[in-house]
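job 3f2a | input accepted
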Amino acid sequence: MHPDHTPQRAVEVHHPTPIPPPVVHSAPVVPVQPGTVPAVASVVLPDGRVVTGYAIDHPQPQPVAAKPAVSRTAVNVALGGVGFLAVCGGLLLLTSFIAALTAFIGQLIILAAVIFGGWIAVQVLGASGHKGATTVNIRKAVIKRNHFHG
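job 3f2a | predicted structure (150 res):
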C-alpha cells in the first residue's frame, strides 16, 4: 500500500513523569579517631613523581584446612578390590558363555542324531516294507466315490 492510502490513526502522546529527588536527611557526622594512626607511605614513580598515601593492610583470608593425605595402602586396597571385581565379572561371563556354547553343541549333536536316525529308519523300513504290504502311489491314484483306481 502507498502511504497516501493508509488509514489515519489517532496518535497518543505520552509525557514522562518526573521523579522527585530523594529526600536527604542529614545525619550528624561524628569524627571517629582510629585506634592507631596508619603509617604514611611514599612511592616514587618511574617518571619521578612521588605519590604519598596511607598503607592499607589487606585482610588475610582464612587458612584452608589441609586435606588429609590418602595412604598408599588404602589406594592399593581400593584398586585391588576393583581389579578383583572385574576379574570375577569376567569369569562369570566366561563361565556363562562356556555353558551356553556347551548347550548349543549338545543341541546340534541331538539334532544330528535325530536326522541320522530318521534316515536310517527310512532305509531299514523302506527296504523291508515290500514283503507283504501293498504300496499305493498317491500321485497316480484317482479318487472316485471313495474307491482308489490306479
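job 3f2a | The CA atoms of residues 77 and 139 lie 80 Å apart.
job 3f2a | closed
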